[in-house]
């Protein structure tokens, strides 16, 4: 059913309002980054960063300005800027302000995504923001940076005001994720690749020979993650603080150590994760066949009683 004309006009008006709001919010994000970096340069706090020697204000500006896709790099790739900064109350407040603006931008982008036509709403938003900053865009193109990444723009920093007793950062290698899907789901995934392609046609034929109700396993290799664990210091207000853990791809902002004024005790990871265990160390209770049944979409069959016996 066609959308009524008045609804289309209201929708276009709202899209224009959201684009304007997002552009203004992006300007405030850039201004907040300037404020953070200026205070950082003035205070020169103690900091550690992964694979980085000089944690100066130029380094921090590069990290906070990483809101653009690298040309030739997959759009879903996420750059890692794992670091810890021992920040004063004033510097932490500046980081809090930056986080609030990132949250505001996220809300605007989410609402933009729901406007019609939904397929290009956020693409229009990214293009309009680029138009508002032509000098910045020209510089980014020269540097090999292609277009605005919304996820990078709104990703927040972890900022803690409570005193910290210890920070531990380490690699987390989970190997692979396994998601149960139906035969119908697998068929849709194959068709998206092009049913007229010979290799896809072969896999569709294999799939057609399965019982419709047989569950299949979508297996994806997990990229190594840097995970941060924080243990807080005991205080009168919080005599038994609970530790927190989270994936770490942006700098962690904490108060300086109460005794040294520097970073709290810190355990840092090696530059690269350890190699995953070999096939001989595979979990004994796995229920998924080793070889993919539909290799183009990384779908495996589950072991049956017959195959287990064999």
Structure description:
With 310 residues, the chain is α/β, with parallel strands linked by helices. Helices cover 41% and strands 18% of the residues. The protein contains nine helices and 13 strands. The protein has helices at residues 5-43, 57-64, 89-113, 121-132, 134-142, 150-154, 183-194, 198-208, 305-309; strands at 47-49, 68-70, 83-86, 145-148, 158-159, 164-172, 176-181, 216-221, 225-232, 244-247, 252-254, 266-267, 299-301. The strands form four sheets. Strands 1-3-11-5 form a four-stranded mixed sheet, covered by helices on one side. A four-stranded mixed sheet has the order 10-9-6-12, with no helix packed on it. Helix 1 (5-43) runs antiparallel to helix 3 and helix 7 runs antiparallel to helix 8 (198-208). The model is unreliable at 72-76 and 135-146 (pLDDT under 50).
Keywords:
globular; alpha/beta; 310 residues; four-stranded mixed sheet
Give the gist of this structure.
By secondary structure, this protein is α/β, with parallel strands linked by helices. The protein has helices at residues 5-43, 57-64, 89-113, 121-132, 134-142, 150-154, 183-194, 198-208, 305-309; strands at residues 47-49, 68-70, 83-86, 145-148, 158-159, 164-172, 176-181, 216-221, 225-232, 244-247, 252-254, 266-267, 299-301. The protein is globular and about 70 Å long.
């Amino acid at each position: 059913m066609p959308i009524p004309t008045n609804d289309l006009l209201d929708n276009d008006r709202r899209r224009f309002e959201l684009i304007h709001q997002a552009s203004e919010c992006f300007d405030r994000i850039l201004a907040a980054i300037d404020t953070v970096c200026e205070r950082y340069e003035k205070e020169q706090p103690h900091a550690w960063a992964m694979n980085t020697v000089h944690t100066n204000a130029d380094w921090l500006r590069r990290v906070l300005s990483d809101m653009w896709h690298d040309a030739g790099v997959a759009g879903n790739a996420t750059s890692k800027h794992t670091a810890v900064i021992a920040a004063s109350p004033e510097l932490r407040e500046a980081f809090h302000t930056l986080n609030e603006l990132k949250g505001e931008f996220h809300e605007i982008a989410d609402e933009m995504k729901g406007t019609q036509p939904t397929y290009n709403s956020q693409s229009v938003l990214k293009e309009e923001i680029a138009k508002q900053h032509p000098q910045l865009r020209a510089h980014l193109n020269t540097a090999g940076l292609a277009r605005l990444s919304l996820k990078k723009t709104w990703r927040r920093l972890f900022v803690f005001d409570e005193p910290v007793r210890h920070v531990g950062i380490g690699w987390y290698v989970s190997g692979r994720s396994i998601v149960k899907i139906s035969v119908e789901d697998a068929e849709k995934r194959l068709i998206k690749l092009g049913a007229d392609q010979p290799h896809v046609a072969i896999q569709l034929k294999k799939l057609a020979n399965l019982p419709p109700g047989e569950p299949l396993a979508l297996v994806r290799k997990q990229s190594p993650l840097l995970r941060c664990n924080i243990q807080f210091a005991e205080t009168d207000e919080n005599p038994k603080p609970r530790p927190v853990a989270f994936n770490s791809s942006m700098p962690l902002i904490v108060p300086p150590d109460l005794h040294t004024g520097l970073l709290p005790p810190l355990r840092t990871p090696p530059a690269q994760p350890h190699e995953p265990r070999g096939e001989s160390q595979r979990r004994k209770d796995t229920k998924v066949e080793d070889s993919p049944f539909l290799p183009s979409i990384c779908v495996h069959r589950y072991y049956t009683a017959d195959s287990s016996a064999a």
